[in-house]
Each structure stands twice: as C-alpha cells, then as structure tokens.
Amino acid sequence: MEESPDLIAARRVLALEVEGLQALSASLDGAFIRSVDCVMAVTGRVVVTGMGKSGHVARKIAATLASTGTPAHYVHPGEASHGDLGMIAEKDAVIALSNSGNTAELADIIAYTRRFSIPLIAITAKRESTLARQANHVLLLPPAEEACPMGLAPTTSTTLMLALGDALAVALLERRSFSSADFQLLHPGGMLGRRLLQVRDLMHAGDELPLTAPDTPMREALLTMTTRRFGCVGVVDGSGALCGVLTDGDLRRHMNADLLQQTAAEIMTPAPKTIRVSALAAEALGLMNRYAITSLFVVDEDSETPRPVGILHIHDCLRAGVA
User: Fold this and answer.
1) Pick the CATH number of 5-178 from 1.20.1250.20, 3.40.50.170, 3.40.50.300, 3.40.50.10490
2) pTM for this one?
3) Secondary structure of residue 225 in the 3-state scheme
4) Residue 161: is its pLDDT beyond 90?
5) DSSP state, residue 243
6) CA-CA distance, 162 to 17, in Å (whole number)?
7) I need a surface site. Which of 45, 95, 227, 245 has the fewest CB within 10 A?
8) Are 206 and 311 in contact (CB under 8 A)?
9) How many Å apart are CA 179 and CA 181, to the nearest integer?
C-alpha cells in the first residue's frame, strides 16, 4: 500500500530537524562554555528576547532557565522600545535570538546592552549579522534546511534554538549542582511537584512515633501499637538504634496462649526495611509495594546506626498524590 503523503511529509520534517540537531551538537565549541561562564557570573537575571517565532522560543527558554535555578524572564523587543528596557538591569545578561541576526526590533535592546555594558549572548545563524557582531558571545546555529517546502517558515531553525536553550539550561543546572530538592521547591504544584516530594515532607515524627524497647512485655507493646495506629511498633535498643519491628503479621505468626508474657524482642522481625529521610516519597512507595508492607520507619542518614526519626504510612503517600 502506498504511504500517505502526510506521513511522508512528517518524516521528511523530522529527518531534517534531526539532521540539524546532529550538526548543532557537532558544532558546539568554546563559545558555549564561555556563554555558560557568562551566565554563571551574572548576579541579576537573564533576560531572553526574540521576535516572532524566535520570541516564542525565547519565552520557553526563559521559563526553562527560571525553573532550573537560573533566574530569567522574557522581554518583548517591541515593548522594550516603549519602556520595557527598564526591565533590563546593569547586573543582568541578555540572550537574544534571531536566525538572521538582523531583526530590526532588536536594535534598541542591542544598543541598550552596549551602552550599559550588559553581557549579550547571541543565538543566530549569521556570524556577520548585526547581532553577532555586537554580542559578547555568539552561539552560532549551523547551516540547516528549513523543513517548510518553500524554505520560508521557521521550523528547523527554531528547533535548533529551542534545543540550544535546553542545552544551556541543563549545563547551568549541573554547574550549580541543582538538586531534586531545589527542583521541588520551584515546582510545588501538579504531578511534577508530587513526584518530587521527599519522605521528610510526609512522615510522622516526635510523639507520633510508635517505639518500644526490646524487653518491653507484649501487652505494653500492643498498647503502643494500638494507640499510634500505624499497625506496627519499632523496637529500639539502648543506643536508640532500630533493631526490629513488630507488625500485625508478627502477632499472627506468634499467636499462642503465652504471647502477652513474651517480650517485644522475642516476637519482632529483626533488621526491618527502612527509608532515608531525604529519599523521594515515590521511592518509599515503591519499597512498600515491593515488599507488601504498609509502613516504613524513616532513619537518620547521618547516623552510623539506623536511628528512627519518623514513620511513613502508605496512606500518607496516596493522600499526597504520590503514585
């Protein structure tokens, strides 16, 4: 069967853009490193700008930078000429996007950065353009065929700009040692925020912890288990280290007439599963599912022995939307 013209067109577009991305990757050089150095040295914000389709890409790059630890915002070139130049401060840096490098609307922003010695990073395909000649650093796009049959609509070129912005954001993220905890701080809402919740955000601590000593009679251990309502009791030794856990399953396995006369140490399961306080809640949920348990004791990761600092129940994860 003859292939649909729509699929042929789609595959041609993707093939051209992949080819462009491969050329972009191969062309990266010291200019990229110097651009990262430049942004790292900024004590203000990164202002990203561009006109038309480049402007839409610039908005996305600014959003990605801001969400990964590099304060950034977008300034529209047209609005900049009518007062929004005030949104660019002397401690900022500017990243300007223009495939041709001769976008007229960028002229006032370029002149403003030169007047006040504000670092300017250009993303353009034309080395001899006005933008490239005036910039402190030039991230040059390699020659790439636009996917539009007429070669007019920005397609491959905007894909390369977008990818280069992502590469810059991730390189900066790694330079800053930006962690999942930092990421969660900037993404508290939605599915991403829930995925990045840590155990410390959901665990129960303090007086809520169901703990007992190894020599505690089972009648007392059962009382602790009942009043704390986690379905388990942690058994801690004289040094405060977690040496075992008592669960409903342990009670069933040891059910006999002498149960209440025995001690917690005689009934407990030794070396219970635990989770670090800084672990993601998703990791804790996976552990509980894997071992078919409903609670995990949270231990102090800085201690040589597993000292319990909290407890996490599977319902805590589910209520928080962790899945």
Assistant:
1) 3.40.50.10490
2) 0.68
3) helix
4) yes
5) E
6) 12
7) 227
8) no
9) 5
